[in-house]
Specification:
- It comes from Funiculus sociatus GB2-A5.
- The chain is built from ten helices and 24 strands.
- α4 links the parallel β9 and β10.
- Strands 11-10-9-21-22-23-24 form a seven-stranded mixed β-sheet.
- α5 packs parallel to α7 and α8 packs parallel to α9.
- By secondary structure, it is an alpha+beta fold.
- It folds into two domains: about 140 residues, Sandwich (Immunoglobulin-like); about 375 residues, Alkaline phosphatase D (PhoD) (Purple Acid Phosphatase, chain A, domain 2).
Length: about 525
């Protein structure tokens, strides 16, 4: 059938498989009725309700999350009445939606901004699916998603890309236009999906409000970013695995400590608003539903016997940045044993996962640069204390564990710093002869800027950081990774400019990590 055949849907009795899959939707209905009982079966919208596109995420071998949000007036609270609205969904094995395998109905509520997440189970591993939503008489675009290979299944190849830092005001999301055309299994987003600032008049487009604080502020800002057609294309093309950094709440916050100018209670409220809006706009499973200012985001996803991804949260549980934050010499607090980037529970979770992993590649997907880097040649040494250089003992515990336990091929993926880097990770960065225990790839931003004046300074310091194999601060884009059983290849894909919606794409540099040999070699 082409599109939604709702007469057939209503007249066909549910099969057992459909009931098993529909459990997520039925759970959503049960939750919705706790908020309010009024459901508008045939809603009328003031405009097209699927203005924010569709998305999918967190692929498992038998299930995936499907997402959309009803928002006919996306930049003004969504434009939906305060009633529950049913949304029908279906998933097919072909792009024309003629071979529908599962369908159901979920309830959107005003309490969650009329967002919807459907966890569709009972799917076949390692295959493409297409999906679509319908509300009232309105139909969404068709999205594409892919399940993960079955646990432990031998697979020979995996393709994915990772991205981060997409400040709306700096430039256009042309990088996402090209990313959507890549041959990928999924996309990993490492944070700074939105920025909280007010208008800065720094680029070709502006934020839609002053600095955001309230729930409606954060909802409108997420909606602004999701109106971008290139971002919508990238979400509709692949499932995404997402985590946050700081700007989803506030620059450089640490746990419940704000950057400045807020009382503790005001920041707790602000973080709760930010986390709720993030959950509402991402294809996350219900386990991530925030509880006030707390939200469990770190998690693990496995792709056959080839790769396991440990997705970290280095903001919610970290101790305060030492030495006053920023780029400066390290003080004693940067070496404190109790200083933590992840919190004790998440750190133990990570180490236990690495120790038990049976996959060929073990990925740590996280936010801030793990490698040590002295940013200025000569004395004094200058470090970024918002990154792992401000949490030396915490980093040493993880890299020391990797050295001792030797999980297969550990690779760290990083965003945050708006530039491209390749590092050999060592237990002793002060000793170039120290063995390399892992590899770190740091991806540039989609649009967020790296100070042009700082590029020469960083380059001048490269000889004093021999574990750093590559740096570029000029170009924006994303990172494409191809994994096989014998090698991992990373391609730094960059656009010619972020100021032209029709900018071209090219590969700036490529690096390979060989199976069993930590450290990257330039192709």
């Amino acid at each position: 059938m082409n599109g939604f055949d709702f007469e057939r849907l209503l007249s066909t009795r549910l099969r057992r498989r459909g009931l098993l899959v529909g459990g997520g939707a039925l759970t959503g209905l049960a939750i919705a009725t706790q908020f309010s009982s009024r459901v508008v079966a045939q809603p009328r919208f003031s405009g097209y309700p699927f203005t924010l596109g569709v998305a999918s995420g967190d692929p498992l071998p038998d299930s995936v999350v499907l997402w959309t949000r009803l928002a006919p007036d996306p930049l003004n609270g969504g434009g939906m009445p305060s009633v529950n609205v049913p949304v029908q969904w279906q998933i097919a094995t072909d792009e024309n939606m003629s071979k529908v395998v599962l369908r159901g109905t979920a309830i959107t509520t005003p309490e969650l901004g009329h967002s919807i997440r459907v966890v569709v189970g009972g799917l076949q591993p390692d295959r493409w699916y297409w999906y679509q939503f319908k509300a009232g008489n309105e139909v969404s675009r068709i999205g594409r998603t892919r399940t993960a290979p079955a646990f432990g299944t031998p697979i020979n190849q995996l393709n994915f890309a990772f991205a981060s830092c997409q400040d709306w005001q700096n430039g256009y999301y042309t990088a996402y236009k090209h990313l959507a055309e890549e041959n990928l299994n999924f996309v990993v987003h490492l944070g700074d999906y939105i920025y909280e600032y007010g208008p800065l008049a720094i680029g070709p487009r502006q934020h839609n409000s002053p600095e955001i604080v309230s729930l409606s502020d954060y909802r409108n800002r997420h909606a602004l970013y999701k109106t971008d057609p290139n971002l919508q294309e990238a979400h509709a093309a692949f499932p995404w695995i997402v985590t946050w950094d700081d700007h989803e709440v506030e620059n450089d916050y640490a746990d419940l400590i704000p950057e400045d100018g807020q009382s503790p209670q005001a920041f707790v409220n602000r973080r709760a608003n930010a986390y709720k809006a993030y959950y509402e706009h991402m294809p996350l499973r219900a386990a991530a539903l925030p509880k006030g200012a707390d939200m469990r985001l770190y998690r693990r996803l496995t792709f056959g016997d080839l790769a396991e991804f440990n997705v970290l949260d280095t903001r919610q549980y970290r101790s305060d940045q030492p030495c006053g934050d920023g780029f400066k010499p390290r003080c004693a607090e940067a070496f404190a044993a109790d200083a933590t980037m992840t919190g004790r529970e998440q750190e133990q979770w990570l180490l236990q996962g690495l120790s038990k992993s049976q996959t060929r590649w073990n990925v740590i997907a996280q936010q801030v640069m793990m490698a040590e880097y002295d940013f200025v040649a000569g004395s004094p040494e200058i470090f970024n204390l918002d990154a792992w250089d401000g949490y030396v003992a915490s980093r040493n515990r993880i890299l020391g564990f990797i050295k001792d336990r030797k999980p297969n091929n550990p690779v760290v993926l990083t965003g945050d710093i708006h530039s491209s880097w390749v590092h050999d990770l060592k237990t002793d960065f002060q000793n170039p002869a120290s063995p390399t225990v892992a590899t770190e790839f740091v991806g540039t931003s989609i649009t967020s800027d790296f100070p042009t004046a700082a590029i020469a300074t960083v380059q001048a310091a490269l000889p004093e950081n021999p574990h750093t194999k590559f740096f570029d601060g000029q170009y924006r884009g994303y990172v494409r990774c191809n994994l096989t059983r014998n090698a991992w290849q990373t391609d730094f894909r960059v656009v010619s400019t972020i100021l032209d919606p029709n900018a071209s794409i090219s590969t700036l540099a490529s690096f390979v990590v060989e199976n069993g040999r930590p450290g990257a070699m330039r192709v």
